[in-house]
Design a protein that fits this description.
It contains one helix and six strands. By secondary structure, it is α+β, with helices and mostly antiparallel strands. The protein has one domain (2-70, 114-151): Nucleic acid-binding proteins (OB fold (Dihydrolipoamide Acetyltransferase, E2P)).
Length: 152
């Protein structure tokens, strides 16, 4: 659907939708590439196409990146493509002077198996990170809604 960027925060952007509804695009749903500063991708008042990806307690979660074609991926899931056609090594020519195939890499040593404590710590850290992110989004969204109601 079509929307208009209403306001921008460090974690996402609020989008005005039809029927006087407002949804939020989290920073991770703005572009297929890593977004450090959302203001480099969106500006207030900009018209955008968004996809509804979730409804959570009357909050509308939106995505912009899911409407864009994904860049081809290789190298174990890491993208070698950068904006402007630049490679990570600074080169920009599409020709291959060198081959970067797996056959020229040093063999990878298998990692030592993780202990139960290490696995638990990793899961706990992931849970805490996700929980903090959700709480921040909820607080900011409710703060934003409260401010918009007071205006009129």
């Amino acid at each position: 659907m079509e929307g208009k960027v209403k306001s921008i925060t460090n974690f996402g952007a609020f989008i005005s939708l039809p029927d006087n509804k407002t949804g939020m695009v989290h920073i991770s749903e703005v572009a297929n590439a890593y977004v450090n500063d959302i203001r480099q991708h969106l500006t207030e008042g900009q018209d955008v196409k968004v996809m509804v990806i979730g409804l959570d307690n009357n909050k509308i979660n939106l995505s912009i990146k899911r409407l864009e074609p994904r860049a081809p991926r290789d190298n174990g899931g890491r993208s070698n493509h950068r904006a402007g056609g630049q490679r990570r090594d600074g080169g920009s020519a599409p020709g291959r002077e060198q081959s970067y195939g797996r056959s020229q890499r040093a063999p990878i040593q298998p990692a030592a198996p993780k202990t139960a404590d290490q696995l638990f710590e990793e899961k706990l850290k992931a849970f805490m990170t996700e929980s903090d992110s959700k709480l921040s989004s909820i607080k900011a969204y409710s703060d934003h809604r409260g401010r918009s109601r007071r205006r009129g």
